[in-house]
Amino acid sequence: MKYRIIHKTEYVYDEPASLCYNEARLAPRSLSLPMFEQICLNWRITVDPPYNDYRERTDFFGNNCLYFTVPETHEEMIITATSEVQIDPVWDKDHTVPRADLLEREAKRSPAWEVVRNQLQTDLFTDSVQARQFVMNSPLVVVTPEIAAYAAPSFDRGRPLLEAVYDLMQRIYFEFDFVSGVTTIATPLAEVIEKRRGVCQDFAHLMVACLRAKGLAARYVSGYIETLPPPGEEKLEGADASHAWCSVFVPGPGWIDFDPTNNLIPKDQHIVLGWGRDFSDVTPLKGVFFSHGKHKLQVEVDVTRVQP
Amino acid sequence: MTTATLNTLLNGYNAESGTYDEMWLAANDVQPHWKPYIQALEKLGADELERCRQEAHRQLRENGVTYNVHSDTDNQPRVWPLDVVPLIIDYQDWQVIEAGLKQRAELLNLILNDIYGPRNLIKSGQLPMELIYSHEGFLRQCDGIQIPGKHQLLVYAADLARGPDRRMWVLSDRTQAPSGAGYALENRTVMNRVLGGLFKENKIARLSNFFQELQGALADLAPQQWAPSPRVVVLTPGPYNETYFEHTYLASYLGYPLVQGDDLTVREGNLALKSLDGLQPVDVVLRRVDDLFCDPLELREDSQLGVAGLLEATRRGNVAIANPLGSSVLENPGLMPFLPGLARSILKEDLILPSAATWWCGQPNERDYVVNHLDELVIKKLSRQPHTRTLFGAQLSRKEKEMLINQIKGQPHLYVGQEQVSFSTTPSLVDDHLEARHAVVRCFLVARKNNYTVMPGGLTRSAPRRGDYMVSNQAGGISKDTWVLTSESQKYTSLWIQPQRLERAFKASYHLPSRAAENLYWVGRYAERAEATARLLRVILTYVNSGELFGEANTVEAKTLPYLLRALTQVTMTYPGFVGKGSRARLTKPIDELRSVTLDSQRVGSLLSNVKAMLRAAYTVRDLWSTDTWRVINDLETPWPSNEELKKVGMPIIQNNLNRLVTTLMAFAGLNSESMTHEAGWLLLDTGRRLERALLTIALIRATLGVRCQEPVCNMLLDSILRTTENVITYRRRYRSYLQIQTVLDLLLIDPTNPRSLIYQLDRLQRHIEKMPRDKAFYRLGEEERLILEATTRLRLSDPAVLTQTDGSSLLLKNLDSFMAYLTDQLSQLSNVITQHYFTHTQVPHQSLSAILPELPPETDEDIKLEVGSKE
Q1: What's the CATH code of the domain at A55?
Q2: Residues in A touching B855 (Cβ below 8 Å)
Q3: Closest Cα to residue B535, out of B558, B568, B561, B511?
């Protein structure tokens, strides 16, 4: 599947802003995961007014990270990131079914979650050692007794890992309301748990937290999801959204993604920008500007299939 | 020396059994290396010793050597406490310490290199991943960033204490921005002055070489080694920081500008100082800001102390920060148990200085040990938390212990248990004799070329009470000089002898930060405002004090006073006061209002509010004042009688305070013009002063002479103005006792030889403005040049006779009043223009909002308002 993504961010300032420094994680990374592969074919970023200083680097987690500054005094700034990615599901042995579709069925054949947890702790393979950094608390994901209690029912003793994780994803999907606009980035997980509602970012954080509460390695994934219009209607421009989900580490196969907001295993409709311990590691766009006043933000995302 | 002579000082010396004492040997005998010093103290005698102690305190207070205690409600910095009895370390002993510190620094440096480089120690399992990755100082953003040279750990400090077995132990490591080296130097300086005589007989290692090495090391960091001179700045969090004094002290001792985050800016990946002469490149930052606060873009977003883009500038190698951002990862007590093994595997050596025995709970056995031995241990978190106390297991209640154990079991990798080191005692002067107090010494190292240099000495801190182990300043600890005895006499070295590269450095590289310039400007303005207010109050009080006149409304004094009181309100802008609502009552009973305008420091415009504002501004540019000047500034802190006291004894006694204040402010003004180079800083200071004096003179003239009044009152007013502006003597000499408004205006407005005349202020302003840095493009005048030229010219052309003409119908001297109004307006504009051109700190940084994900709910939700955007 090939997609074109246009991610447009518009800042409008009450008072003119002079200098503006930005850091963006808006360029998709290329990757190969147990359930799908992604190649970033090309991408570019345009800024209006134009930037004068621009650098690309790879961050600690291997994500593409862009730095740019806008020196000119401006009252609004539009950042448009455009990218094209090729995403292919990984197929089963017979090349008939995407492995992601088999996961639910095959989950019961995975090792018990305690085995995985112990293996993770003692394993000396590099990828396991690397994965262990995703077991610990991070700035936005701090495990509390409430979170541990919420996770517990999915993790009966000896339950196969993937079955437990699948169950956790389903519970979050069914037990939490998706309510746009009720949370901010600063919304603590405790509130999400208490009110049983949030947005995809909160659900991703919650699932990551639950997995970490059980001593498993889980990371936060930032990206997009392709949405389809209701039957018979045309898709509206800017109707898509940034998205977030989570990924769990299984020694051996590696990282397997779960999307608790949509209750599914990503295979070819999820476009990955990058990942980290939580949102704070992969904020798509952040900046510091110099001005007297406040500002407003508007974001539009278009994910279009370039070829079926 | 006989034991008898030691008796007085050592009488009842209370060395604890089971604890090593630095001085005590046996009953009435001391360690050989202490003998000469103790003998010398004995010779001084108790009285003289007490005098030395007081003298040291006085010097520290007058030099403004302070530290800030967070719990202090009034936020007043405290005088740095110094015990005149030093800690003395003999040469053999020191050699072991020195070697041990160098080894530890090298080891920590290699670990730091690895953590932000290949991370082989983690991959190989020599360092547990959790130990490093869960530490708050492990900054993933800093991965792969390196400063030039072999050492990433440029400056290092360690707290040492001696155990019962006489060995020195390392209690903790300071690796990001160690404080204390400046205080150590100041301690030595004061000790030298106070007990200089004793030094001659002792061969004490000098400290200055360490600072020379530090300068050299910082110069070597400059990324662009071809540049004519390395441009170094000292980055401070500002005057509210605990050790702000030290920042100012080091900056001025080393000769670098002291800057705060908003003095710096990143442009196209380069760091620049916003100075009076525009943006100046910066090569090296010696930082005293914690690393998390250094860059709001990539690190802590809410930090107002950092510079957006700083990390990117270091990533590109355009600027080097010492110590590099991320180096606080080594301030991790959990590292300690791993150091002996790492020393053997990396350095192939045994660790010379042991660390306090430490158990990292990230390992199961160690965790169980800690949980089972809570009573014997100190429990610490991996990352140092500000404002939290160390937990002594033995002091916890059962419930607290249970909670702690639960916390440890929940996140074991975040905790360590550490043995309570029973460290040695050292003599402290208490009243007139010596007592044993536990002490910790902080040692400092700097990396230069291939080696670390250890400061031969350090900052010793001793506990305030017997048996106490808490030595921090916050806990009331007392500092000591630390003497390392050497085998040979020390050569005198000072910072003036510079390696070649630095010699060329100095003159060219000092640029005054704009913020400092702004503060100097306000020091000038507030000093002048305080002085003028004090002078006017003084004159008014002579009327008030001159006795019973309140009963007699018909005396000339009684008739003049209201004019002066109204002028006071107008000049100080403390409305309504004697002018606005309720003024009638206040005019008949002015004492309460006068007291308030004098003493109420919360009231804007009052005398003390101006003094306070001046002190605040002066403190933020602490590094720019000479020692003598600072002593005078300190004098201004002398307390005034409280409002309550004054109510009892009456206003008159305030005259003495006013006199003293005026004298001190005059001394300050004198020092400004005589002991500051007349460069940018002075230029701004004096500009503020002249502008304020001009504005206040105008205000005074307007308030008192703008309105016609009867002759006896008029004469008395003129006399008061002359006294307020310190012109009485001059006037009498020139015009005898013939008082006339025109001649008074001559003297006050247009006499160019009178340093208190308006034209004198404007002339000075004009000259200052010419010298201020600006783009002198074309032949056009700058806005500020135009303003001052016009004002000066019109003032020159003015004629007091014309100004005081009246048509007889109006009480107002219209010409005078409108001319004064014109000048006020012109000067206010000038002040605005200067502020805009030279002090550009009006804009504050903001964080961009980040989008909440997703901006739109998923497909299932029908109730969506769609934003339609345009496509390319």
Answers
A1: 2.60.40.2250
A2: 180, 241-242, 299-301
A3: B568
